[in-house]
Amino acid sequence: MKALEGIRILDFTHVQSGPTCTQLLAWFGADVIKVERPGTGDITRGQLRDVPDADSLYFTMLNHNKRSITLDTKNAKGREVLDALVKACDVLVENFAPGVLDRMLPWEKVQQLNPRMIVASIKGFGPGPYEECKVYENVAQCAGGSASTTGFRDGLPLVTGAQIGDSGTGLHLALGIVAALFQREKTGKGQRVTCAMQDGVLNLCRVKLRDQQRLAHGPLTEYSQYGEGIPFGDAVPRAGNDSGGGQPGRIVKCKGWETDPNAYLYFITQAPVWEKICDVIGEPEWKSHPDFAKPSARLTRLNQIFERIEQWTMTKTKFEAMDILNEYDIPCGPILSMKEIMEDRSLYQTGTLVKVDHPVRGEYVSVGNPIKLSDSPSEVVRSPLLGEHTEEILRDVLQFDPGRIAEIEHSGALGEIQRQAAE
Ligand code: CAO
Fold first, then answer.
1. Which CATH topology does 241-330 take?
2. Is the distance from CB of 14 to CB of 47 less than 8 angstroms?
3. Is 216 exposed, middle or buried (0-12, 13-18, 19+ CB in 10 A)?
4. Looking at ligand 1, which residue's alpha carbon is closest to its atom 7?
5. How many angstroms separate the CA atoms of 114 and 407, rounded?
6. Of all protein residues, whose CA lies closest to atom 32 belonging to ligand 1?
7. What sign has the CA pseudo-torsion 238, 244, 249, 255?
């Protein structure tokens, strides 16, 4: 038995943000029925293609464990199918552009058809001046405060590779859906769940809003620029690789950095292990020296300290340095490339990385469910082909008889039905 077994999701999501959410629900055991436009389907099927005519990794890695039905919701017969699906499902999830769902299926109509239904939506912005805007990942990163606080003080604002706007908001929405399902257990009623990508990013940038308010009371002493004597402006600056928690940290070079772009280590000079750090890097006198012994004294000498640390790390590979530092509980982390992560056998053992077979593209590696439930293990099942389950859903979920299915098919509402070879 899986945690969300018996929950059926009507999945109108596309691209990245929404599919992340419904994939998580599917991994927890929900039956996710992905509705796609006949012919084209989710636009990502054909984006960033690496194998000709095969669903892209963009699509396959965001749509595991789902079933696909092709349905034209603007066709009269298609609308009948849509209404039947609303009655048969527990949750509708969508990330259309603003206004699309209201045109397709207003909330009042959903409530008439199925008062228990939860309708969950991702939009770029909440109500306000930007609510009508279409939003993609980097737009959300910029509008949510991430870009202005990422990068180096004297450089451009930067976006991050972590998809905090899309996947981050999908994750927020999944939590909202599960909470609404839990509430429905008691009230019997559905409700709307909405997550704006700007809000999701801002939630993840909470510590930077903290710093914005601290600025009113003086400089942010843990930022490197304080120690370098550079005054603060009126907004939180970009902090380079400074750590956000108040313990000075930086990225330092390791052996091989001249040729390997990832031969680096994140090193935190955490106060409680300062003496051990001094011993490891070969500066034992810094333990008692007035310029270095106390964290406050070190703040104006961080460049000197990290240069010395780097002299030491440059004599070791990042993994050798990790091993030594971990022995002393000195917090540090290797800068792992995607290649190194993909080759890490331990990640396959935990199911965080999985090998998935696909009938058209062959085997590929994906990220499995990062949330582990001891009583609801996730098995990663390949993403569906476009419309692979159209007939199965009409027959088994909606209980339509063959005559009705043929009638809907002839209306053009389903596009071309994908039939199994045996049929
Ligand atoms: N049958 C018939 N029509 C369908 C359909 C179906 N199965 N599925 C969708 N459509 C129609 C919609 O009804 C809509 O038509 P109208 O505008 O006439 O009502 C139309 O397709 C457009 O859908 P869309 O607005 O979602 O697509 P888009 O390419 O215009 O916008 C995006 C894409 C991502 C910018 C927009 O959906 C958006 O802003 N979403 C919210 C924020 C978000 O999730 N962004 C992250 C995207 S990356 O993860």
1. formyl-coa transferase, domain 3 (3.30.1540)
2. no
3. exposed
4. 37
5. 25
6. 97
7. negative
pLDDT digits (tens, 9 = 90+) for 311-359: 999 999 999 999 999 999 999 999 999 999 999 999 999 999 999 999 9
Confirm whether 166 is a catalytic residue. Answer: yes
Relative to the CA of 14, which ligand 1 atom is closest?
49
Start-end of CATH 3.40.50.10540 domains in the chain: 8-204+347-410
Closest CA to 154 of 216, 224, 95: 224
- Where do you find CATH 3.30.1540.10 in the chain? 241-330
Residues 45, 59 contacting (CB under 8 angstroms)? yes
b/e 223-237 (16+ beta carbons within 10 angstroms → b): bbbbbeeeebeeebb
Q: How far is CA 351 from CA 9, 237, 355, 365, 380, in A?
A: 24, 38, 9, 11, 9
Give residue-wise pLDDT tens across range 351-393. 999 999 999 999 999 999 999 999 999 999 999 999 999 999 9
Q: Is 214 helix (H, G, I), strand (E, B) or coil?
A: helix
CATH code that applies to domain 8-204+347-410? 3.40.50.10540
Q: Extract the tokens encoding 170.
A: 């999908």
d(CA 248, ligand 1 centre) in Å:
44
Q: Are strands 192-196 and 118-123 parallel, antiparallel or unpaired?
A: parallel
Pocket test residue of 43, 93, 134, 411 for ligand 1, highest count of atoms within 8 A of CB: 134
151 Rama class: left (phi>0) / alpha (psi -120 to 50) / beta? left
